[in-house]
Amino acid sequence: MPVAFPPAVQQLPGYAGNPGSVPVKFPPENYPPAPAFQQHASMAPAPSPGYPVQRPPPLTPGGFVPQGSSPWTTGIFDCMEDPTNAVMTLLLPCFTFGQIAEIIDEGRSTCSTNGAMYGCVAFLIGMPCLISCGYRSRLRAKFDLVETPAPDWAVHCLFECCALCQEYRELRNRGFDPEIGWHANMARNRGVAMTPPVNQTMTG
């Protein structure tokens, strides 16, 4: 079988391997300049699927980056949206806090335990907001809520009852019922609480 060899390279004038040739300047003086490269819009790299582009949160006029991006479904002073809870929180804030804390803890603590802890702190040092403001931060982190109208510690120190009522209503608006506890909410949402069939017989 014959073997094909590549064609010989033609030596141009000015090539180092061609003695006696006239040197040529590179680039030639009369060669037109190369046009500037302009990237077309269709050549821009597209983001990879499954990896969304993360944009930084918007800055406020003062340069502060707010925590969270979702607004609350109820205002801090809208206590009359649930008058029963407003009166209960005014008389027994430890009870409302216990209900909220059980939902936020996802059943790892009970309403009575959280309420007793809240009452002890209120009785001993008179500042139950030291506990309740931490649960407000956890509630915001769970639902990506904006820290408004002030930092969590300031909201609970200044408007303790209003803050508890707002957090209670926020859980209600998002499908939780703090009155029945965490486990009853899970059973209701998953359809576990079902009545067994009556007079069920097995036929052969």
TrEMBL record:
NCBIfam families recorded: A_thal_Cys_rich
Q: Which Pfam families match?
A: PLAC8 (PF04749)
Q: Give the source species.
A: Spirodela intermedia (Intermediate duckweed)
This protein is called what?
Answer: Uncharacterized protein
Q: Which domain of life is it from?
A: Eukaryota
